[in-house]
Amino acid sequence: MAALQLEKQRVRNAVLAIAAVVIVVGIPLWWKTTETYRAWLPYSEISQLDSLQLQLSVDIEVVFSRGTLTPEQQKKVPLSHVNVKEHQVDAKTGLRYKYETRYRTATIMEEDALNQPTAAEADLSLHMLSENSCGSVVVYVIPESSALLPVDVKVYVGQRRTALLRSPPFTSSWSLKEVLSNLDVDVKQVVSTMSFGHQDIVAALSNRVRMTKVNKESMADSMRTIKSSPGYEITFSLLNPDPKSHSLHWDIEGAVQSYIQPLLNKLAPIANFSVDSQILYYAVLGVNPRFDNSVSAYTLGADSLSHVINPVEARLGSNAASSNPVLNFLLYVPDAHHSPLYIRDHSKREVPSNAFHSPRWGGIMVYNVNEMYGPEAERPVDININMAKVMGVFLAQLRLMLGVQRTHPPTGFVLQSPGSAGLADWELDRLLWSRSVENIATASTTITSLAQLLDQIGNIVINDNIAQQVSSAVTSLQSAVAELEAGNLAFALHYSREAILASERAFFDPSLLHLLYFPDDQKFAIYIPLFLPMCVPIVLSLLKTVSEAKQRLADKQAKRD
Fold first, then answer.
1. What does each of the 561 residues of the chain score in pLDDT, given as a tens digit?
2. What is the three-class DSSP state of 40?
3. Contact, 410 vs 144, CB < 8 A?
4. Strand partners, 344
5. DSSP label at 344?
6. Inter-residue contact 447 to 49 (CB < 8 Å)
7. Entry's InterPro entries (predicted)?
8. What is the pTM of this model?
9. How far apart are CA 67 and CA 78, in angstroms?
10. How far apart are CA 514 and CA 457, in angstroms?
């Protein structure tokens, strides 16, 4: 009897020891070795980015030249004035525009610059005196009787960040407050022309807000502009469908250096650009042009232009080594049997440039050469393409694709041509404002979407590299928002580019997909055949041991009673 009790005691001890090892060692060890590694992410800071409140600060300097204010008024000119406008775009996105205007009188050297014979020379002389910071606007108020501007011109906007404003007709009896109040209307028009517009900024937020908040013109500009990217590939292609008749020569390298490269140099803060060219022989359009007897020429209607791109695009090839967006610019020389060829708009009128563009893709120009030779000319005919004519069209299309928006100045405004630079400084500022806001909106949306995804699916691995990219994106976003608020446009763009790069690297990291499609039912299907045969004896033994212990306690209680 004692030996039997001793044997039962050893069995109970063995069962309890095995259960203790399984519970204390086995289960924690299995849990630790099979858990999904998830690095720490700044969820609290990411949640703050879901509600985006941006402040855009613009520095404005109004400079009064000699003869615009009386000596008494000059003494009372305030140092600065701040104007704030707030717009709530939607429940989670708000905009705040801060315009800080500083007033002063012109220096002696500035007065000398304003005495130049033409406004363009005055603008250049003022630029030589000092270079204004990125995003700022300087308005020089000149006397009403000044001959620097034509009589019908009220405002002259130069190539830099300065504008010449003809003083409204004041009288000496006016107080300084009345003068500044009347002048403020014209200054606001200058700032809205040279700096950002509200609809342009809302259009840049298209990744966060509904397009119903944007007017039709800004929506069209936004849909035409290629999305922000760290780099772009620009390809110029010459299409010669009839090499037996035409031997075409184009100085594309010299044309790019003369017309395109100056623009790309100014856009260097926004993205990196690479340019290449090619000549495609026997490349034809995807549609057959119609012959119009009234003009004795072939025509392409606006309805058929959409069918031109796909067949041609198949011949263009692609750069597999780069993931950057590509902008294509095609120069098409019609074959001898379909010349001349003209493009017509929806109103059946000939397009003056004989070219068209496709949003976010590029442009095509038709270049007729039939007038350059007679019917008896020896084939193939050597033809030198007028690159100035061609590049003028492609440059205008490139500006539209990159987001250099068309400006519609008020009546009485004259905008100086950007010249060989291809882009005025204030046009660059307008683009920088839009791109900075677009980058911030895109990066914040990407990061918040990634955080929600990782929070909802707990078995996705978050390695240290992803956590580092997310933290870097959040830090860059906070810096970009702060720099926008401080009015440092160049730094805001820099940080916004870093934010969008880091956010996209984190979002598209391949390691996020390893356990994405491994649901819990598959885990049970794997674990049950492994653990069930081992767990059933242990559990039954534990139940038996507990039952025997309860029986012993019941027997002892009965004896006491």
1. 567 777 777 777 777 777 787 778 777 876 776 667 788 888 889 888 888 899 999 999 999 888 888 777 777 778 888 889 998 888 888 899 999 999 988 889 988 988 888 888 998 998 888 888 888 999 999 888 888 888 888 999 988 999 999 887 766 667 778 778 888 888 899 998 898 888 888 888 887 777 666 666 666 666 778 888 888 999 999 999 888 888 889 999 999 999 999 999 999 888 889 999 999 888 888 788 888 888 888 888 888 887 888 888 777 876 655 678 889 999 999 888 888 889 888 888 888 999 988 888 889 999 988 877 777 777 788 889 999 999 999 999 998 888 887 778 888 898 988 887 788 899 999 999 999 999 999 999 999 999 888 888 777 778 889 889 999 999 999 999 999 999 899 999 999 999 999 998 998 888 776 555 556 666 667 777 777 777 777 777 777 777 777 877 877 777 776
2. coil
3. no
4. 350
5. B
6. yes
7. PtdIno-glycan_biosynth_class_S
8. 0.82
9. 18
10. 12
CB 50 within 8 A of CB 195: no
Amino acid in the structure at residue 210? R
Q: Identify whether the C-beta of residue 354 lies closer than 8 Å to the C-beta of residue 368.
A: yes
Q: Rounded CA gap, 331 and 118, in Å?
A: 38
Helices (H), 362-517: 387-401, 425-456, 464-486, 489-507
Any idea which residue has 């440092």 for tokens?
Answer: 488
